[in-house]
Amino acid sequence: MEVRACAGNMDFARLWLGLLLPLVATLDFSYHHQEEMEVFLKNVAQNYSSITHLHSIGKSVKGRNLWVLVVGRSPKEHRIGIPEFKYVANMHGDETVGRELLLHLIDYLVTHDGKDLEVTSLINNTRIHIMPSMNPDGFEAVKKPDCFYSNGRENGNFYDLNRNFPDAFESNNVSRQPETVAVMEWLKTEPFVLSANLHGGALVASYPFDNGIPATGTLHSRSLTPDDDVFHYLANTYASRNPNMKGDQCKNKMNFPDGITNGYSWYPLKGGMQDYNYIWAQCFEITLELSCCKYPREEKLPTFWNLNKASLIEYIKQVHLGVKGQVFDQSGNPLPNVIVEVQDRKHICPYRTNKFGEYYLLLLPGPYTLNVTIPGHRPYLTKVIIPQKSQDFSALKKDILFPVREQLDPIPVSNPPCPRIPLYRNWPSHSAATKPSLFLFLVTLFHILFK
User: Fold this and answer.
1) Most exposed of 160, 209, 226, 340 (fewest Cβ within 10 Å)?
2) Catalytic residue among 140, 154, 285, 289
3) pTM here?
4) Are the C-beta atoms of 111 and 52 separated by less than 8 Å?
5) What is the pLDDT of residues 419-443, one digit of tens each?
6) Sheet containing 339-342: which strands, arranged edge to edge?
């Protein structure tokens, strides 16, 4: 009772403190080029230093910083029990709406902390990483904005960054680009749980897999993960709160009645970022296509913000789905690199505890059996029931004491935990892995040319 009262007093104090904090100069609804974006981000980091941390995860081909702003109560480092979330935008330089939406999301979060209870609770219980532009060179290369295609789609070396990651289904022997390498290294440094990358040119929330084999459903024009129910829910969470993401909103484009689609069902692609996140970084990521026009006129930006604000906030909250906790030995020491998965939904690259012995599993309400595995020991099974209504801004907490009395040898840690090779290569009928139907072939060809 005293703890709850103390927490309530802290939130009340933050509300008052929020009224006294300096405000960032009003962010206008226009396109912000690299220098303007940097000025804004640095001002935010300076004026809200207690809840933000600005850093560059690397540089683009042409030497521009790949900025990430972190928002949270402990912005500079991970805290046990606080899940890591990220948004990435402008992966294709000519798809610009997401870039501006994330700048306005930053502005909204920092200016509403201490004033809005939902935002304050979100910042209290989540560490939010926001990268407004993964491809600043491409953005700056666009000289004549166009709704369908501009020369800024690719990076400075003319590579499509969303075809540049290792692929789990077939070899992707392309030259790995600096922006891609920077993101891959970034994923090693943070135990991300949930993510979305923001694109343009359609109106739909697309979820993994983007590539596949018959065993994942490609003979039925789809490719499903073991967590398809969760991904379907996540995509719907975003799309259902954006009134534009339903029905045939984009002329001459595919119709997505519910505003969501499986990536492979839409069109297969190799080397995509969302599949890489899910398989090698233990991070659930979806792709958000947020505008029919890739580079719309800037006077339309306020409308895009109003349509997406609720979805952007609600999607972050989903990082608190399911169950989380730590795995300990009999002496109470946290155990890193232990496999913790749900029976009957095992991943091709098993999900493991981080260096703090933590695990995070995004799950919908219902009963599950967790399988905890340490090499050389019998698996430990434990049951968990995810309640219909989760706790506010927290997944169900379940710590696990691994039942072995003898001293456990250190578990070798590798990062990433699996080699970056086509892990599905040895599955049955791999030769037919990416042989889509004629319809899928035509859709793929269309998107190569126009998307």
Assistant:
1) 226
2) 289
3) 0.89
4) no
5) 999 999 877 643 333 344 444 444 4
6) 339-342, 366-373, 380-386
